[in-house]
Amino acid sequence: MRNNRVWNTRVAGGGLALVLALSACGGNGDDGDNGDDRELAGETFTVGSKEFTESHVLSNISALLLEDAGAEIVDQTGISGTATVRAALESEEIDLYWDYTGTGWVDILGNTTEDLPDDLYSAVVEEDAENGIAWLEPANFENTYRIAVTEDFAGEHGLSTVTDAADFIDENPDQNRLCAASEFINRDDGLPGLEEAYDVDFQAVELDLNLIYPQVGDSCEFGEVFSTDARIDANDLVVLDDDQDFFVPYEGALTLRQETLDEYPVIEELHQPVSEALTDEVVMELNGRVDTAGEDPRDVAEDWLTEQGFID
């Protein structure tokens, strides 16, 4: 498979590089007479992601699928924060990125965790369609927020649920530190809602996502974690059961503008079997190859896609 990625300055924080000239929305087919009969030959797509490992891996999976179908890719992975990457999608600075149903319902569409529909995915699809954004069928994994402690701390204090943690903090208010990233600290489906649901007060210690896991049991008694993150096991952490069912389901799904999907329906065809193969166990393994084994997200994505027969 040829490496036809077009490298561009990565997006960081709020500074978005303008790549409209390379965007796929115009359907640039001027180079389509080179004899390449692949479905997306001559087209260019700008692929974005959020800043954490799983988002990098998933977006590289999408980029490689499109490349294998003949497209060129402008790399804009690593955008910091949901609001920023979503704004990039809406403003056509990127063409697609992976997000999560819970994030879509609460953080993007402005709903609350208390008005959760029975079919969250369908509700997100219907409501976001009004914004011109399409959500492909979700993959077979769910990456949900969780609260974790070290195995030793859980055993010493008999903690297995978030209610146990709330009771412990009520009796030990000086041991309430929670290592968390900025987005979790400020999201309604993150710390503010969690504290209200469990009637507990955490002392938030804001850290970069990658620093949270080794700091649980050191800088903090508790930590925000993702349920598919291999660093949970690598750092001997125990995930506390969300016994009040506060956290919203977060099924991973590719998002893109509806006009892009209408023009290139093959994008959905390419992703459908891949999404079915992306189970909780698979995603945790891929994340672990990056976070604990130090491999590059693109290499991890390419190895897996090749092994599964999704790309040549």
Automatic annotation (TrEMBL):
Its cellular-component GO annotations read: ATP-binding cassette (ABC) transporter complex
Keyword Signal part of the UniProt annotation? yes
Q: Which residues form a coiled coil?
A: none
Q: Which InterPro entries match?
A: ABC_Gly_betaine_transp_sub-bd
Pfam family name, one:
OpuAC
| GO MF annotations in UniProt | transmembrane transporter activity
Query: SUPFAM superfamilies in the record, alphabetically?
Result: Periplasmic binding protein-like II
Signal sequence coordinates: 1-26
Give the ABC-type glycine betaine transport system substrate-binding domain ranges.
45-307
Q: Which UniProt keywords apply?
A: Signal
The record's section on PROSITE patterns has: PROKAR_LIPOPROTEIN (PS51257)
Q: What is this protein called?
A: Glycine/betaine ABC transporter substrate-binding protein
Source organism of the structure: Nesterenkonia sphaerica
